[in-house]
Amino acid sequence: MLSFYLAALESGGDREMFAEIYQRHHIKMERAAIKILRDQSAAEDAVQNAFMQVIRHFEKIYEIPCEELPFWLISIVKNEALMLLRKRDRTATLKEERFPGGAEDVSDYTALVELFRSLPDTYRRVLEMKVLLGYTDKEIAGHLGISETAVSTRASRGRQLLREILEKEGFQL
Amino acid sequence: MTDQELDRIMRRVLIDSMKLEEEGEDKGPVFEPSLRHRRRMRSFLSSAA
Which H or E run includes A57? Predict the structure, then answer.
């Protein structure tokens, strides 16, 4: 199946680039998958599925700055791992979690990053898929098993939180 | 601030939060690829050559 996907890459250059991406980043992706799934076989499936997604969205590779590529890849494998987790355990469906406050405690950029790191997974996944991966609401909804409305709500709450903090603190980024 | 500018900053914040998370990832389960996985990936990569 993987080889079938690989054949979909248009040029030999793309295929070589893909192989290089695999060699450079697979260990981090594997680590991210096993951390979520805690099951070797499932983690292997997540990694393979992630590489299929990489091929499907390969045209985006050329638009991603080199230093951001590892995070783009990790975000993809996390999505695949969470999808498998959801299929394996229905109770693992991302629940509607209360959106945290905390904007008032943010006084510098480090605190802002920490706040976003501590967002419930259900919000972070949506923001990562939308902003980092450029997925549509429909794609995100399919991945997370939630409605498109829920995707849109979560994305706008995340943006609203960031806007509020930026306006309050006047960060220059 | 436009939505585009906001998303650019959001992108940076999300990446930095992932970096932060990655720093604390040394502990935890270890990925030990099965023979089947190694074989599959090897065959996959050889078709890229």
Answer: none
